[in-house]
User: What shape does this take?
Amino acid sequence: MNRLGLILALGGFALAVAVIAAQDLSAVGALLAAAGPGLVLVALAHLPSMVLNAWAWAVLMPGRTRPSLLAMTFNVWVRESVNGLLPVGRIGGELASFRLLRGQGVPPAPAAGGLLMDVALSILSQLAFALLGLALLAAGGGAVGWGGLLLGFAGGAALGGLFIAAQRLALFGRMAAGLNRIAAGRLEAFAAHSARMDRYVRRAWRRPRAIALCFLWQFVAWVAGALEIWTAFQVLGADLGFAEALVIEALIQALSSAAFLVPGALGLQEAGFIGLGALVGLDPATSAALAVSRRLRDLLLYLPGLAAWALWERRGGNPA
Assistant: This one.
């Protein structure tokens, strides 16, 4: 995975450079220079989304072992930083956050089970957010057919439904038990942990209030993510509103998730900003500056996130 991720990262970086270089670089540079320190505000505008995601995730944790909101926000920060900057196929952040939860005193079953449920619900909440973005684009006269909306909904719902069904049917525990039999009992501890996780998840899916609250807060977090695009509009001088920011954020996030194997969706994200910018009325130079501001966000927020995670590990943040 690391080798493949490195190859994809290099190819994506080359594509990103080509996409930006194809624009009017003097105009792009002038926009970024005029924005100046405002680009820091663009990065900080991502923080509300992180806090809301942390709260949504915490809802799934048992009250007696639930970490504080500050601790859960730290977990989200590290999770996004790892997935956003490292060639880990969007799973390294989940593994890192599992270690963080264990170090914060969460037992293995709730830590793994809550994480799996959070991922499953995030697929569905992101689907709803992407459909909202597509609907707004279509309502504004964008080149999106309602047939495409229905097709996208069906595909996303099927993916989320399969993931949830796998959890409710205890497939992870059954697979672990099968591997243990093949290994002649040498994976007994792994199979036992998997069985406990499956029991926790199956019980947790019977808590409709927690499920609904997690989904709702995740959706609010996706919408809050558009605040970053809207702030970028302000500092770059683009005369567009929050609805256009929401359209771009919804579809860029969907594109980034679809390109999960490419670290940070390098290249594809830049091309997406150029294309989506054109659909909502942005000129190419402003769209390119918007793409660069998103990469600056990654550097300003996610590099410190990786450093904070490394420091946590170095200080003995081992699973309890």
Summary: The first helix runs from residue 2 to 21.
